[in-house]
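Handout, tutorial session.
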Amino acid sequence: MACHAEYVQYIGEQCSGAGEITLRKMFGEYGIYCDGKIFGLICDDQLYIKITAGGRALRPELETASPYEGAKPHFLMTDVDDRESLSAFVRATCEELPLPKPKKGGESTPLDYKKADKELYQPPKKPSIVDVPAMRYLAVRGKGDPNEAGGEYQTAIALLYAVAYTLKMSEKGPRKIEGYFPYVVPPLEGLWWQEGSDGIDDSRKEAFSWISMIRLPDFIKNEDVDWAITEAGRKKKLDCSKVEVFPYEEGLCVQCMHVGSYEEEPSTIAAMEAYGRKNGYAADFASGRYHHEIYLSDPRKCAPEKRKTVLRCPVKKTEAR
């Protein structure tokens, strides 16, 4: 469950007595900063604040919890209605936190979704359940064998990267995108399916339908993408008209980090399916839900046995008997 905008705004106002409060959206949740220091997270409409000695001295009764699976424990702030008390707690916390390290040339650290959203881009090698919030992507749709030299899939990837890097580099040209901040172009992703079939039969690559895609930062609007499609086409002499903005709310999935060649994926998928069944989940390839892959390794530079690919399969909770 993602945060509600009203709750996030309320928390910002309640903490404002501590200093200049800023909020940065990170994968449907929010990092919360005071005078440039990140002191906590807002996840699922709950405020989590970093554990410090000063905070513990002020509120020794506070319980701790992790904002998300794999995160360090934080103070769980269940009472956020006393603005003066909450601001004092934030102030005490930030006094013990270091300032961000300055970067060369005064440049800020580019946002890297692989690091900011580790739950989604760096899952463990064992299957787990994840609820993926809505996101927007650059996307190109197509059909056929992705390994076909010079085929439709390879053309789609070239178009996606042309538009993605035009958006990223816009800060260096006349086009000024409102709210722009430096970021790393996210990894290539793909949704895969075969008509009339649940799941994926890798032996019939020619029967694939796919949506190849790259995640968009939240500040990029549809009109910015329209500009980038035109600009990339002009500069690269490409027809980028097949590139579109694709909003996708993925929802409940079982996911796993697969390490190895693409041909070895079926064994990992089988383990994911078994994990889902054991924990009360069933595959759910209903309309608009697909097998999902995120490619963290460049196959041109990485040996097949070392390639890292995030695998996701849509699931639904089965009814208890």
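The second record follows below. Compare its token runs with those of the first.
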Amino acid sequence: MHGWAAGAAAVSLQQGGLLLHGWAAGAAAVSLQQQESVRMNPRTALSGDVKRTTYASWFSRPGWVQRGVFWHLELSVPQLRAVQRLRLGLHLLPVETGRLAKIDRQDRCCRFCDSGAVGDEKHLLMECTATGVVRQRFSCLSDLAVPPCMRQLVWGGDRMMVAEFMSACLG
């Protein structure tokens, strides 16, 4: 065998007790990779995984950040509440209120702008035109997130400023 046929025949994958060979193994490996990338993106995760994926992908503390970083700051109560509400999904953004009302995710549109985008945490903090003025005021934070990355925005800079930014965005 030559070319792609030899490569496909050489590929094998153990999945669910079955040993797959050739093109079936290649297709299964691609499928697993696609499922993993879908699971790690809150915007494309399966509906039962969205809340966990949102926290894990956007708000969980990376290993290089010491514990209790936000707790040791001199934050006002509203600032600390804003940080915790965004991190834990305990806010009134359409992504959460719609989930509780059993509205399809794609129909949970932002109520602050007319973009038609799902009103989730990333949209509020990084994309929404209604919070554009706040983003300009905290423009030094946006330098941390190029390309836009929620985890880098939340954990990559001055935590006091991040807390003030989140509080201002939640208004």
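Points raised in discussion: Strands lie at 12-15, 18-21.
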